[in-house]
Amino acid sequence: MTVKEITPVVLCGGAGTRLWPLSRKGFPKQFIPVYRGKSLLELTFERLSSFGGILALSGEEHRFFVEEAAEKSEVNLTQILEPVARDTAPAMALAACHARQENPESILLFCPADHFIPDNDLFREMVLEAADYAKDGNIVTFGVHPASPSTAYGYIETGDEVGPGVRKSKKFLEKPDLETAMAFLSSGKHLWNAGIFLVRADVLADAIARFEPQTFDACSEAIASAQRDGHFLRPGGRFKDSVAKSIDYAVMERAENVLVAPFQGVWSDVGSWNAMSDLGTKLPNGNCVLGVEENVRMISSENTVVHGTDRRLIVTLGTKDLVVIDTPDALLVSSLAEVEAIKNVVGDLVAQNHGQALEHRRVARPWGDYDSIDHSDRYQVKRITVKPGAQLSLQRHHHRAEHWIVVKGSALVTCDDKKFLLGENQSTYIPVGAVHRMENPGKIPLELIEVQSGSYLGEDDIERIDDVYGRIPE
Predict the structure, then answer these.
(1) How far is CA 276 from its chain centroid?
(2) Where is the MannoseP isomerase/GMP-like beta-helix domain (predicted)?
């Protein structure tokens, strides 16, 4: 079997709250450059590029981030946009129903978007070695031999061997306590669950139809009524009737044809700051630096992890077993022993309506991004960056006026019936209610300072009239 006979499917969901404040719901860890200037999603696309066309499951909120990562990785991508988040079983059901329309026996390789697997060649060889088992009608998952009694991963208990290193799956197990994890490690029968699956489209569809008929019916009808929009496929409204459930609970724990192949090489789900530190620059005395390294100084420190930014200098003096994660609008300081509890803290922050729990100060958009520099009751200042050739929607605001000052590049501005070009150090005024648009006609990023003033400055005070990114509600 060749790689071209296998279709990779990348699952792009997940909020990454265990890596707060760097990862947040609005811009989760799979999109953040964390390794040599690349995001985990870019690395995933590069790892799968030799297989040919890639299918991705994502949502409306993140679809342009996924598309941008695909462009950087130079892969051919089709995105299925889930109308609502429903966990991995419904997402994988959509992919299986879509794929079997063209070839029921096509082999699908399901991969999370946010795992770190550095050896692309070894990964490809591992998948090809397991492909015949999938072709014969088995559901193949990959188990990682545990290097420690980790309580951060789910486990798979393996049974009888059916081929070189390949065993039957006996039981899928939740994240254990330390005592149980130590027992798993010593047993030799328990592997970390890597969340990677290799299966024929018809086999997976039949399994979901058998064990989760409501989900199968909803996903099958949603794909049958899906609307295509360029590289995007929008399933029909029946998808909302699917049951939110992981694929482990829905199928893997119940099916009799699940096999476990050994994962080969280095693997991490980058699911915590302890795991993220493995991707950083190692320093003496067990220290590690992430992010902007030149802004971090560590003096007489031991086992300290620091994430730096370009905003300020961070100095640790005499620290030990500490995590310091700096971002422009939130700072996390935690002991290494307690940092795994950050997910619960984020839940509390959401309940208390802290905006930093979900959104960054810097907000990514399909045309570029904006950074909220300063704000008060009646004004807000943003630094806006527009990609070359990109444009914002044609829009109006009912409660605020705006001043734009170009500091880099050039801007093509539409304001009511006028259209004009602004260069560096030039500015313009957009009155309340004016129909306006900003475009970057140049070859370099456009940067400008926007000063908003008015009685209401919320992001929902935008009436879009025309938008190349399809963001106008029907």
Answers:
(1) 15
(2) 298-349
Helices 40-48 and 63-73: crossing angle in degrees, nearest 10, is 50
Residue 142 corresponds to which tokens in the numbers above? 């990959």
Centre a 10 Å sphere on the Cβ of residue 416 and count the other Cβ atoms it contains: 12
Candidates 2.60.120.10, 2.60.40.10, 2.30.30.280, 3.60.40.10; CATH matching 362-466: 2.60.120.10
Two tokens, residue 182: 């130590």
Which two three-digit tokens encode residue 126? Answer: 């591992």
Q: Do domains 3-262 and 362-466 have the same CATH topology?
A: no
Please list, residue by residue across 358-374, b when 16 or more beta carbons sit within 10 angstroms of its beta carbon and e when fewer do. Answer: bbbbbebbbbbbbebee
Q: What's residue 14's pLDDT? A: 80
The dihedral through the CA atoms of 59, 62, 67, 73 has a sign that is negative
383-412: per-residue pLDDT in tens?
Answer: 999 999 999 999 999 999 999 999 999 999
Query: How many C-beta neighbours within 10 Å does residue 163 have?
Result: 12
In angstroms, the CA 203 to CA 138 distance is 8
Domain residue limits, the chain:
3-262, 280-343, 362-466
Distance between CA atoms of residues 114 and 43, nearest Å: 9
Q: Which two tokens stand for residue 294?
A: 């030149």
Beta-strand runs (E) in 357-439: 362-365, 368-375, 379-386, 394-396, 400-408, 411-415, 418-422, 427-430, 436-439
Supply the pLDDT for residue 234: 94
Question: Using alpha carbons only, what angle is made at residue 407 by residues 402 and 412, rounded to the nearest 5 degrees?
Answer: 65
Alpha helices in 302-387 (DSSP H): 342-351
Amino acid in the structure at residue 369:
D
Banded pLDDT at 474 (limits 50, 70, 90) = low
This model's pTM is above 0.70: yes
Instruction: Output the CATH code of domain 3-262.
Output: 3.90.550.10
Mean of the per-residue pLDDT values of the chain: 93
Residue type, 399: H
